[in-house]
Amino acid sequence: MRRRLLAVATAFLTVLAGSTPPAVADIPQYGIVSDNPVDWTPHVMDGTVWALALVGDTVIVGGAFTKVQDSSRRVTLDRKNIFAFGLYDGAIRSFAPEVDGAIYSLAPGTGGTVYVGGAFKKVNGVAQRGLTRLWLGSGNRVTSFQAKINWGDVRSLTNRLGHLYVAGTFSAINGVERVGLARLYAESGTVDQGFDAKLAGPGLSRTRVEHFDVTADGRRLVAVGAFLKAGSSERIQIAEFDVGGPTAQLTGWYTKAYEPECMKGFDTYLRQVKFAPDGSYFVVAATGRASSVHKLCDSAARFETDAVGEQEPTWVQRTGGDSLYAVAVTGPAVYLGGHQRYFDNPLGTDGDGPGPGAVSRPGIGAVDPATGKALSWNPTRARGVGVRAFLAVPEGLLVGSDTDELGREYHGRIGMFPLG
After folding, report:
1. SS3 of 272, please?
2. What residues contact residue 315 under an 8 Å CB cut-off, 6+ apart?
3. How confident is the model at residue 130 (pLDDT cuts 50, 70, 90)?
4. DSSP one-letter code for 389
5. How far apart are CA 414 and CA 395, in angstroms?
6. Which of 43, 128, 187, 319 is most buried, judged by most C-beta within 10 A?
7. 350 pairs with which residues across the strands?
8. Do the Cβ atoms of 83 and 76 come closer than 8 Å?
9. What is the DSSP code (8-state) at residue 374?
10. How far apart are CA 113 and CA 137, in angstroms?
């Protein structure tokens, strides 16, 4: 298995050399990953893994944690909120920057760098709130990148075609007003003045973008979160933009599917969104603590990207009252993670057991991209709060969460399912 992955690695790194780093949009894969995780990934000993990124052959891991162990569990190292390891051997890198708050998002940069977003205020002792760029070799800040948010946090990042897209709870970057979503020049961190999504949430305590994705061609962006308007147009919790030009142009795509309220107290119940590798559709993962065939609480739903006018989901996968937090779309499968117990469970209710036709998929599972029905892939995991991060790579699927059992084996908060 190691020899095969190293052969894939050589080919992949040859393609990567000198190229623009990939977007957050998932890469295509030729099949469904194995249900047996590889044995060489390291372990995160506490807290939660929130974010994953790949730069060359280095996996960067972000979250809220303090210690990591090597795959043998013999060596324990202090690593606060961020660390890195080798994709093909699991070796923990020396990369150990000091970041004083949780990291929620990562994006690959050029020249051996990574962009980091989260709830921190200082990086290596220097004030740089919510957003930074780091050298992987040294862990030092890229000092030419000066972007910082005014308050709140950064929850999602994508580096695409010379631009860095940034989303979270902030209302300004570098003193430029941008509510929840902004586009920066990737090298300098300067705000792109022509790009403004003009998101607003009248009556909400705080407007925020929980997550977003950009198509691989850089043409479309879909954002989800606590907002009700984009400019003068109503867009409740989800909005799609044409970002291929100099502005954030709201498209004619919209849906009212997320208007119905789930359990009270959710300003948004949408948690993650990912485009298919070809950009033709996207899938939204949602929480909500409410089971209903008339609402999209605790569900995953597929929508078509280039449709115009009011849209209904192409399909809906319902858990029966358990939250979904993460999604990856690879072509052969849509992977879903959360703390769900069942898939195909529209008539189940939280606490009352599965409904007719439900299938057990504790904490992780996959569905058919065309129908949304559960596939047979069922590795299982300790459910905890849930999967927070997927990262599809040419060799398989990386998973980050808050528990230490994946595929019926010990894997501390991170693991990888290889392509079989």
Report:
1. strand
2. 301, 302, 371, 372
3. very high
4. E
5. 15
6. 319
7. none
8. no
9. B
10. 8
pTM score of the predicted model: 0.94
Q: Which amino acid is at 389?
A: A
Q: Where are the beta strands (DSSP E) in 154-289?
A: 154-160, 163-168, 172-173, 176-177, 181-185, 199-200, 208-214, 220-226, 229-230, 233-234, 238-242, 249-250, 253-254, 270-275, 281-286
pLDDT at residue 20 above 80? no
Q: What is the mean pLDDT of residues 197-202?
A: 97
pLDDT digits (tens, 9 = 90+) for 48-102: 999 999 999 999 999 999 999 999 999 999 999 999 999 999 999 999 999 999 9
Please report where in the chains the tokens 């990737």 appear, as a residue: 186
Lookup: tokens for 243 = 């970002």
Residue 282 has phi, psi (to 5 degrees) of -140, 160
Residue whose tokens read 């939280």: 350
* Angstrom distance (rounded) from CA 72 to CA 380: 22
Rg (CA), the chain: 20
Question: For residue 93, what are its two tokens?
Answer: 């890198």
For the record, the structure tokens of 134 come out as 């780091």
Q: From the centroid of its chain, how far is CA 304?
A: 20
User: In terms of DSSP bridges, do strands 253-254 and 270-275 run parallel, antiparallel, or are they unpaired?
Assistant: unpaired
Q: What is the largest CA-CA distance in the chain?
A: 58
Residue 25: the pLDDT is: 67
Tokens encoding 415: 């693991």
Find the distance separating the first CA and the last CA of the chain, reported in whole Å: 9
CA angle at 341 for the pair 339 and 345, rounded to the nearest 5°: 120
CA 181/CA 269 separation, integer angstroms:
18
Other CB atoms closer than 10 Å to residue 1's CB: what's the count? 13
Ramachandran assignment for 223, one of left (phi > 0), alpha (psi -120 to 50 degrees), beta (any other): beta
Angstrom distance (rounded) from CA 415 to CA 52? 11
Whether the pLDDT of residue 14 is over 70: the answer is: no
